[in-house]
Design goal:
Blueprint: H1 3-21, H2 26-39, H3 55-73, H4 75-84, H5 90-105, H6 110-128, H7 136-146, H8 155-168, H9 178-199, E1 216-222, H10 234-241, E2 244-250, E3 253-254, E4 269-275, H11 276-285, E5 289-290, E6 301-307, H12 322-326, E7 330-335, E8 355-360, H13 362-371, E9 374-376, H14 389-404, H15 410-423, H16 429-434, H17 438-456, H18 459-469, H19 476-490, H20 496-514, H21 518-530, H22 540-549, H23 555-576
Antiparallel strand pairs: 1-4, 1-5, 2-3, 2-4, 6-8, 6-9, 7-8
Helix pairs in contact: 1-2, 2-17, 3-6, 3-8, 3-14, 3-15, 3-17, 4-5, 4-6, 5-6, 5-7, 5-9, 6-7, 7-9, 7-22, 8-20, 8-21, 9-23, 14-15, 17-20, 18-20, 19-20, 19-21, 19-23, 20-21, 21-23
Amino acid sequence: MTFAQWAILGILLAMIVAYASERFRVELVAMAGLGAAFALGLVPVQAVFAGFANPAVITVAEILLVVAALAQSRVIDTFARRIVSRVHGETTILAVLCSLAALASTVMNNIGALALFFPVTLSVCARLGLPPGRMLMPLSFATLLGGTCSLTGTPANLVVNDWMVSQTGANMGFFGLAKVGLPVMAVGLVWLVLAAPRLLRAPANAPAGNDVGPASFLTEARVPDGSAAKGLHLPDAEARFDILVHGVVRNGAHVFARRADIVLAQDDILLLEADFALVDQLHLEGALAPAERHEGTATPERSEAVVMPDSFLLGSRIGDIGLFAEHAIRVVGLASRRHRIEGRFADLQIGVGDVLILEGDREALGTTLAEGALLPLSRHRPPRLNARAATGVGVFATGVLVSAFELIPAEIAFGAVVFLLAATRCLNLRTALQELNWPIVILLACMIPLGLAVQDTGAARVIANAIVAWLPGEQPLGVIALVLFMAIAITPFIDNVSTAIVLSPIATSISARTGVALEPLLMAVAMGTSLDFLTPFGHHNNAVVMGAGGYRFRDFPRFGAPLLALCCLAALLALDLMV
């Protein structure tokens, strides 16, 4: 292998490690990788920013703007609520919710589909007195299944189609992926509806009744004068009050000693994890006290909210977020899926799917939730359907049909949709551009030149030759299965867009080496990047529902592994018919 081939593979490997660590923002990792590739001469200067002009990137931005318009109109949310209000029984309602979410995900980004149906599902759970964990994981998986059927279901599909066009000149078509995605979605939905009531009987940490979100939160508390905790050894205090203490701060410094040797003293600050209702009770009993006094209002209100993928708070430390200080909002609890708890509460970083307990004035809370892209975990009445909602849906449907029949390219069709939505005031373009999920756009634009570098340096050909050499024979279905399993194996560790960009040139080289048609191989890449059911961190949707549903890591493979096996079988059977 040449230096260029080793270099591009090294950069991609380093990026995978950075993505998996979750210590850095994904767009910063992508920009750093692109910068390193340019510095080493792997990406020419004229190609550094070419990704921003790529049709796939433009289409993704347009779809995100269209989703914003539909979310503002609440038309899908209202439609779903009306249907759900007419059906009864947990299984039936789950079938309706999952089917509607999957259907919506076929024509819009699956993250947007989840955001639309998330509050609907929470309201249904509250009405039925069910833990949200009974429905949120199936809902997330349903949006991923729906995303396998069209080009706009997930940005990875647009990447794969763009690669198909660049290599063959042929377009897969708007619903071309449905030849494989539709049977996968059908099989998957049947499994979700039949298995969820049995396998998700009592998700870990899931609350019941009208309470939503996780029960165990990280928070900070002080040992007041006269506290029953004063003078207790740390393990004894944990056992007595049913809390888990991650750190003790005394006189502004961390107490570093064996846990059994730490004796709690007055005014010690504890970084602890516990049921938040229990924390409130300990405050009332005088065993603990708030670490800080809230000055915003005498009787502050609380709101529990989940951090969405497009929130600008991602990666920020709690104590550094100006939005909270601006509105006199205090974060009093954090349910995080990060396992490393270090420093003070203010030092904790916010990630996708984390659940925050915010405290402050009611109006300020509403403003903070809206500006921070935080989804409240509470029941709320949807606003009345506005008069322009029907116009917006009609314009969007027209754009989908025009693109589906390939009358004009997708980026032109959805560009016209955005223009018409803005012209008819169905979309506030200024607000939508400010709230656009820019990390996804930047990530995609930076990764595309790196994907081309994998092809141009010959690294894809070297990898393809090594893979083919290990195959027992050049059976088309075996080659397709290998590509599918590669995508499934990589996606949990990096986002599906990056997986599609890295594997598309490799699939192209495998096609040239084995003679297997390129289209089914690229479709296998697209399917594999969407079938992410084993981990909470492989796809944003899984991360979002993990915090709100109170799931643990093991809940995902326990429920998702059989679903993955069924979907792989359905995908291979459909792909076999194409070769």
